């Protein structure tokens, strides 16, 4: 019985972790899409004679784009490189460790 409960809890935790990862990935891709569109518009503004002087585009300059590029790069490293370092095996070990600590604290009567 205890192993079934453990497996069910482990499955629920893994499902929650996967759901959180998918949400983070979706957020990253949305941010990346907006960044790419903005970069295209910025480059068109800088290197062509198109009259792109309306509100948000007017205030985008090189500093803003460099900072935004650094943020995107940091997000990408966090999203993908940390997965390589802290991959599936690390998650499994950490999950077992957390569950074992939780079971040791739980008292059965």
Report on this structure:
With 109 residues, the chain is mostly helical. It has a domain at 25-93. It has four helices and no strands. It has helices at residues 2-47, 55-58, 62-85, 88-105. It is rod-shaped, with a radius of gyration of 23 Å. The mean pLDDT is 79.
- Residues in helix, %: over 70%
In one word, what is the shape?
rod-shaped
N-to-C SSE series? HHHH
**Average pLDDT number:** 79
Structural class: mainly alpha
Instruction: Give the N-to-C terminal Cα separation.
Output: 15 Å
User: Strand share of the residues?
Assistant: under 5%
Using DSSP, what is the number of strands? 0
Q: How many distinct helices?
A: 4
Largest β sheet strand count, sense and barrel closure: none
Radius of gyration: 23 Å
Highlighted features:
single chain; 109 residues; mainly alpha; 4 helices; 0% strand
In short:
With 109 residues, this protein is mostly helical.
Question: What topology does this entry show?
Answer:
Blueprint: H1 2-47, H2 55-58, H3 62-85, H4 88-105
Keywords: Membrane, Transmembrane, Transmembrane helix
Domain 2TM: 17-99
Organism: Flavobacterium nitrogenifigens
């Amino acid at each position: 019985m205890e192993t079934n409960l453990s497996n069910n809890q482990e499955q629920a935790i893994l499902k929650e972790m996967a759901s959180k990862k998918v949400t983070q990935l979706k957020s990253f891709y949305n941010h990346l899409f907006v960044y790419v569109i903005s970069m295209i518009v910025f480059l068109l503004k800088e290197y062509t004679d198109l009259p792109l002087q309306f509100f948000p585009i007017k205030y985008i300059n090189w500093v803003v784009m460099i900072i935004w590029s650094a943020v995107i790069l940091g997000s990408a490293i966090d999203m993908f490189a940390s997965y390589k370092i802290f991959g599936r095996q690390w998650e499994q070990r950490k999950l077992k460790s957390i569950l074992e600590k939780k079971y040791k604290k739980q008292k059965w009567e």
